[in-house]
Amino acid sequence: MIFDNQYEQQRIEKAEALRELGKNPYTHNIKKDSTTEEFKRCYEYVKDSETKRDENKKNTVVGRIKFLRHMGKAAFAKVEDEKGILQIYFSRESIGEEWFKAVKKLVEVGDIISVTGFPFVTKTGELSLHVKTLDIATKSITPLPEKFHGLTDIEQRYRKRYLDMIMNPKVKETFKIRSKIVSTIRHFFEERSFLEVETPMMHPIAGGANAKPFVTHHNALGIDRYLRIAPELYLKRLVVGGFEAVFEINRNFRNEGMDLTHNPEFTMIEFYWAYHTYHDLMELTEEMFNVLLKQLKLPAKIPYGDIEIDFSEKFKKITYKDSLIEIGNIPAEVIETKEEILAYLKSKGEEANEKLSLGKLYEELFDLYVEEKLINPTFIIDYPIDISPLARRKDDNPDIAERFELFMAGREIANGFNELNDPIDQYNRFASQLDAKNAGDDEAHEMDEDYVKALGYGLPPTAGQGLGIDRLTMLLTNEQSIRDVILFPSMKPINDNNEKEDN
């Protein structure tokens, strides 16, 4: 039995007692006239009235009891809905003596009730609802956590998000902001004539990003499929087909570790823009942030943990190589050869694989000495080509990709580049990625011959970008863990009683 402790059994008995009184503890067709917020706004005038009440008004509010205090022949309670909390008052005279006695025994904190009455102001000056009718809407079987301590166990908060939302109102606000962020981004691109599309979530070949995929099996076809690590290659197929500006907001799946900024299942927007460059993408991205701050009513300087992110200035741009020198404080001569980099890393007590390419070693230096220093919005541009397998080479330097990443608060927020549209070059890069995979790189790209074939029909000059919705939400809500902005984050299995994780 799931509900097996004494308190749950007592509540089950109370639910049965309600049924015996002809009161369905799980009724339906409950209607309400207003939210708690609307009630307070509509009847604000009562505070200024002579009698401090308006018995000519009648209003129904529905919500969960968060506080209940009986005082002999009367009771006060706090009822909460999505919009806030409202105080209610009921008495033996107002709802009837017999029902009052039953309510006192059978209705408690956690239950959802429907109350109808008129607005009045208590002696302490609080606008409240004087109840004339009280009905049970839902009898709660499991008691809420003790009110003074609430739900503070971080593991329980993530595993039981529904309970987290009941006990911690700020959590609901965070996810309302997340919804507004997604809505604002969607409208931003729609207003600029981008077409929203949906592409497959199960791929025959894992591609579009350097990551280890989740593998599933399609029984009817008798073949394995990969949960997508990125929608990139399908979106670019659509550009080949004639859509010149497309975007998709959806989930990606990467079989990687979990930490404060990584969840195996996460949300991104990817968009592709024909006849534009990665410089256009950077301008568009900066414009999007300005719109987001305005829509969310955020200041130009926002706090994030112990730091402050300054959006008041134009976003900084610096090349990948220059960032190693100017921000990472690495001597210029060190980054000229693999041997110098390996020696430098060794002198700093860091280990590096001698088989790594020069670009991969740059990446090691960047991760160690640059990334965490990028607090204010900064575009790192012109990446090594060997860590940018889908990006176009610069015409004047084939070792450099026309690519950028946007960093804030010491972490990557977005990645974009001019798309490689030379099918022969793309085929050769896929081939080199296969060599890397065969050498043990689990995250290297597979060969996608159909995508190369698609390029053969002609991909117009195109720039594309991906931006992580979860990390963006973290920044704009000042949350330090990605789990705080994902409604149901991935969790490790529970060991007690051999229970399994929920998702």
Principal-axis shape: elongated
CATH class division of the largest domain: Alpha Beta
Q: Do you know the CATH topology of the largest domain?
A: BirA Bifunctional Protein, domain 2
CATH H-level superfamily of the largest domain: Bira Bifunctional Protein, Domain 2
Q: What is the overall pLDDT average? A: 94
Oligomer: single chain
Structural class: alpha+beta
How many beta strands in the DSSP annotation?
19
Alpha-carbon Rg, integer: 29 Å
The percentage helix is 25-40%
Low-confidence stretches: 498-503
> Architecture of the largest domain, CATH level 2?
2-Layer Sandwich
CA-to-CA gap between the ends?
22 Å
Q: Specify the biggest β-sheet.
A: 9 strands, mixed
Strand residue content: 25-35%
Tally of alpha and pi helices: 15
Number of domains: 2
Strands, helices and their partners?
Elements (H helix, E strand, L loop, with lengths): L5 H15 L15 H7 L16 E13 L2 E8 L2 E8 H4 L1 H10 L5 E10 L5 E12 L15 H6 L1 H7 L1 H22 L4 E2 L5 E2 L11 E4 L4 E5 L4 H10 L3 E9 L11 E10 L3 H18 L5 E4 L2 E4 L5 E4 H7 L11 H10 L10 H12 L8 E7 L8 E2 L2 E12 L2 E8 L4 H16 L10 H8 L5 E7 H9 L26
Parallel strand pairs: 3-5, 6-10, 14-15
Antiparallel strand pairs: 1-2, 1-4, 2-3, 4-5, 7-9, 8-9, 10-11, 11-19, 12-13, 15-17, 16-17, 17-18, 18-19
Task: Please tell me about this protein's structure.
This protein is an alpha+beta fold. It has 2 domains: 6-144, Beta Barrel (OB fold (Dihydrolipoamide Acetyltransferase, E2P)); 166-328 and 370-498, Bira Bifunctional Protein, Domain 2 (BirA Bifunctional Protein, domain 2), CATH 3.30.930. Helix content is 32%, strand content 26%. The chain has 15 helices and 19 strands. Strands 6, 10, 11, 14, 15, 16, 17, 18 and 19 form a 9-stranded mixed β-sheet that branches. The chain has a 5-stranded mixed β-barrel with strand order 1-2-3-5-4. A hairpin with a 2-residue loop joins strand 17 and strand 18 (411-418). Helix 7 packs across helix 9, helix 7 (169-190) crosses helix 15 (469-477) and helix 11 runs parallel beside helix 12. The radius of gyration is 29 Å and the shape is elongated. The two termini are 22 Å apart.
